[in-house]
Specification:
The complex is a heterodimer. Chain A is of the alpha/beta class. Chain A is built from seven helices and 27 strands. Chain A has helices at about 15-25, 65-75, 140-150, 165-175, 195-205, 255-260, 295-315; strands at about 5-10, 35, 55, 60, 80-85, 85-90, 95-100, 105-115, 120, 135-140, 155-160, 180-185, 210, 215-220, 225-230, 235-240, 245, 250, 285, 325-330, 335, 340, 350-355, 365, 370-375, 390, 405-410. Chain B is about 30% helix and about 25% strand. Chain B is built from twelve helices and 23 strands. In chain B, the strands form five sheets. In chain B, strands 1, 2, 3, 10, 11, 12, 13, 20 and 21 form a nine-stranded mixed beta sheet that branches. In chain B, strands 14, 16, 17, 18 and 19 form a five-stranded antiparallel beta sheet that branches. Chain B has a four-stranded mixed beta sheet with strand order 7-8-6-15.
Chain lengths: ~400, ~475
């Protein structure tokens, strides 16, 4: 057992959520605020998202620039950033984390821990795509790091699996790397991105979009030689390519949360958390894409800042809330955050995602058969891969001793 | 120490050439390397050792409890179990003696258990026990409902198949064996000595060992023998996330019945859980692809055995081709007139039996006129322990203090440090690709499959190998 080091707040993960939380906490005088980042540089996913879409409407930024600004803000506020250090596991008693880095193994005890470990795309194996195991198969995350951080050669012809924002970002990265994009392939009947972006890819860059189609097999020994694609109507075709990028299908990186025995939400697969981002484990907060895979970086940063307020209350002696009332969703809704209702932790609003467009764009909130709220969601058209927001005004009508709250579309 | 992967082959004849650097060929090379006077070549078509069936199996160190008594396989598996068990302990190969449970799911299977217990007894396995459902569920609380009983075989273990093959080959190469990779044998002619026509030119040898696995029948025919035909039997396997590991404590084996074998669920020494294999008789010796039907079948069977397993994520899918010959035994034959030994029909038990096969083959070579000369035991090798049961290098304060590279993690899912990758690239038989690096270090073998580390691992590999 290594010696135990003490800090006030330990933030795990230096992405937008972790950095925003650390900046707010350090600025508010929370004491020693330390951020662990297992990668060599802070910034998280924006660090290798070399495209626009970050920052604000009035001040648009690229991912790397945004990551730098968040990093500088946290450091300026007085937070300590420790890169190349991995949080491995929990030690007994309270929020105590075991870590390792070039300085060796360590045990860090904190008065509060903020988990901001982010999300990742599910790889080919988890998606159970059959075929051989050739080289040339990756996710957008790996692709972007290879191109934007290491300048590696990717291939000559690539198929992109998916047609949502991240898929188009992957196509952009491939083109930047000099790789021809053979097609975007999606099981859905249409692309899920802005019309301008979809049209630019199709018309300006000549990238075909194959809808209602599934990649059913990877071909080739040694290096990928093609992918077999099946259309919903039964037709199949082989697209010759040496690279295939599996995009989207994000899952929270919940390893540390799960190892710590945190209650996970069945919808998000991230830690269950209330409106102030308290998890089920006293002293442990969560923020960012660990809670919901995935939302824009600014959402993650706002959650980090909101968690920081709750951390300050906790450090000031506020009692840890009871588990609270679970908020569940019914199909076709996939998940909702926050997904616990506790007194005194009302969020500004909830975020939801749907799997397929619901038959009627109306959201109902029930508890034990009692209608708490009925509303049209924002935006009015509920589509997969698009965030819906739901007001939290109904929280004061929730019976704290009652059953779970259920959000449905009918 | 000689490992070649390109360029011309040596012109001078070897005393022995072994074709095929799978687990069996490497074990034979290691056994022959105990005789320092012999010049031995280990010839492999692919760019690494253990690239065929040896890398895609169920990774079990069998007791041989269910072998057909009296067969060569039964004897070699029993001996091999003891030999490899001791070798693993000496050379840093992870083994976990988790024991196996043959779980009966219906009356027929339950009725078969006493017969299997008697068979185990005949095979020298005296510590088996029949368990009722209560004890079975105590031992395996996550088992699906409906199990009626089980036969417990405590000696069954799980082992790292990659490290085993690599340890044999490393020891052989350090003791003087020449390992020629990327050397596909196209033809062989016997003319008082062997002349092997390969993709890298001609190689001469006085004695020849055919350990070509799936291609052993082709090589055998080139020398005029028509003793067996290898039918590739594909086994698809699913590897589940480490979060599944607490769900299972033993190797859960199916009870063989007239309707064929079912699938097994087994922990791995790397901390994952295996589900498989399928058994599909094919013609194509390169058909190592997984199929939608195969994966669906496995998941359906897995759901019955361990329902919570299929709720976890899959981190890898692979398929291996077993060398089925239609015979219920190994096909190890000496042809003294040709100074030639065929090692054919080595089925899924080959990993367990490898060292005993090697000793047996060496005996056959001596019978075929090879004078092995004096024995000098090779130095033990210490390969990186990839087992989850022992602390990973990053957890060892002494190691990281001496060299901070062991504390700098690159592959986060599997906790692989820059130091381990550097060591693998500088090892006796260095990897020639990212897949080889993964088998030596586990880098990229985790749940993210390279989302975080893929580019960084590639960078280290390319910088380390100058490619």
């Amino acid at each position: 057992m290594t010696a135990v080091r003490h800090v006030d707040v330990l933030v795990v993960g230096a992405g937008p959520a972790g950095l925003a939380a650390a900046a707010r906490l350090a600025a508010a005088g929370a004491g020693r605020v330390e951020v662990l980042e297992r990668e060599p540089e802070p910034g998280g996913v924006p660090r290798h998202s070399a495209h626009g879409g970050f920052g604000t409407l009035t001040r648009p930024l690229t991912g790397p620039r945004y990551a730098r600004l968040l990093t500088e803000a946290a450091e300026r506020a007085g937070a300590t950033l420790r890169t190349g250090v991995t949080a491995l596991d929990w030690a007994r008693g309270g929020p105590v984390v075991t870590t390792v880095g070039p300085g060796g193994p360590e045990t860090v005890r904190a008065r509060a821990v903020v988990l901001a470990t982010g999300a990742r795309e599910r790889p080919r194996a988890a998606r159970l795509v059959p075929g051989t195991r050739p080289a040339g198969v990756c996710t957008t995350g790996e692709l972007q790091r290879a191109v934007h951080l290491f300048g590696q050669h990717i291939g000559t012809r690539a198929v992109v699996v998916g047609a949502e924002d991240v898929s188009y970002a992957a196509a952009g990265t491939l083109r930047a790397a000099g790789t021809e994009v053979v097609a975007l392939v999606t099981e859905d009947p249409r692309a899920h991105t802005g019309r301008a972006r979809a049209q630019a890819a199709r018309l300006y860059h000549g990238i075909p979009l194959l809808t209602s189609a599934t990649v059913t097999e990877l071909l080739g020994h040694g290096r990928l030689s093609g992918v077999r694609v099946r259309h919903r109507d039964g037709r199949t075709a082989v697209l010759p390519c040496d690279t295939v990028v599996f995009t989207g299908d994000f899952v929270p990186d919940h390893e540390l949360a799960r190892r710590g025995g945190l209650v996970l939400d069945p919808g998000t697969r991230g830690p269950a958390a209330d409106g102030a981002w308290h998890t089920s484990r006293p002293g442990v907060f969560a923020a960012g894409d660990l809670l919901h895979a995935v939302e824009p970086a600014r959402t993650a940063a706002l959650e980090g800042a909101r968690a920081a307020r709750a951390v300050l209350d906790h450090l000031a002696g506020a009692p840890w809330p009871d588990p609270g009332v679970p908020v569940l969703v019914s199909a076709p809704l996939r998940w909702i955050t926050p997904n616990r209702v506790t007194p005194g932790a009302r969020p500004d609003h909830h975020l939801l995602r749907t799997g397929t467009p619901p038959p009627r764009p109306v959201l109902y909130v029930h508890q034990d058969g009692r209608l708490l709220h009925r509303t049209r969601p924002v935006p009015r058209v509920a589509l997969p891969h698009r965030t819906l927001t739901l007001t939290a005004r109904w929280h004061d009508r929730v019976d704290p001793g009652g059953g779970p709250v259920r959000v449905s579309t009918g | 120490m000689t490992v070649t992967a390109a360029g011309p082959l040596p012109r001078t004849p070897y005393d022995v050439a072994i074709v095929g650097a799978g687990v069996v060929g490497c074990a034979i090379a290691r056994e022959l390397a105990r005789h320092p006077r012999l010049r031995v070549a280990l010839v492999e078509a692919q760019d690494d050792v253990g690239q065929g069936t040896s890398k895609a199996n169920t990774a079990i160190l069998h007791t041989g409890f269910d072998a057909t008594p009296g067969t060569l396989e039964a004897r070699l598996v029993r001996e091999g179990h003891t030999l490899l068990g001791a070798y693993a302990a000496r050379n840093g190969i992870p083994v976990e003696r988790v024991g196996a449970l043959l779980v009966a799911w219906d009356g027929e299977q339950l009725a078969a258990l006493p017969r299997l217990a008697r068979k185990a007894e005949d095979n020298g396995c005296h510590d088996t026990a029949l368990l009722g459902p209560e004890e079975l569920y105590t031992r395996e609380p996550h088992l699906g409902p409906g199990a009626l009983g089980a036969l417990h075989v405590p000696g069954e273990s799980v082992i790292c198949p990659w490290t085993t093959t690599l340890a044999y080959a490393t020891q052989a190469v350090r003791a003087g064996t020449d390992l020629h990779l990327n050397t596909a044998v196209r033809d062989v002619a016997w003319d008082g000595g062997h002349r092997l026509t390969t993709s890298r030119g001609t190689l001469y040898a006085r004695h020849l060992v055919n350990a070509a696995g799936l291609h052993a029948d082709t090589l055998d025919r080139a020398l005029g023998h028509d003793d067996f035909t290898v039918t590739p039997r594909r086994g698809q396997l699913l590897v589940y996330d480490k979060f599944a590991r607490p769900l299972v404590r033993h190797i859960l084996l199916p009870v063989p019945t007239a309707l064929g074998k079912g699938v097994l669920v087994a922990p791995t020494v790397h901390g994952n859980v295996l589900l498989g294999p399928t058994a599909e008789d094919l013609r194509d010796k390169h058909a190592t692809e997984s199929t939608a039907e195969g994966l669906a079948t496995l998941r359906e069977k897995g759901r019955r055995i361990l329902p919570a397993l299929v709720e976890e994520e899959v981190t890898a899918v692979y398929a291996g081709l077993r060398a089925a010959t239609g015979h219920e035994d190994y096909r190890i034959t000496a042809h003294p007139g040709q100074a030639y030994v065929t090692v054919g029909g080595i089925r899924s038990t080959g990993l367990t039996a490898s060292m005993a096969i090697a000793a047996h083959v060496t005996g056959l070579l001596a019978g075929a006129g090879l004078d092995p000369g004096p024995v000098r035991e090779p130095e033990p090798v210490t390969l990186p322990d990839l087992g989850e049961a022992s602390p990973r290098p990053c957890r060892r304060a002494d190691l990281v203090a001496a060299d901070p590279e062991y504390g700098t993690l690159v592959c986060h899912c599997e906790r692989v440090s820059r130091g381990e990758i550097r060591d693998a690239l500088a090892s006796t038989i260095p990897p020639r690709g990212l897949e080889g690096l993964r088998r030596r270090t586990r880098a990229g073998a985790g749940r993210c499959q390279g989302f975080y580390c893929g580019a960084a691992v590639r960078e280290l590999f390319e910088r380390g190998t100058g490619s």
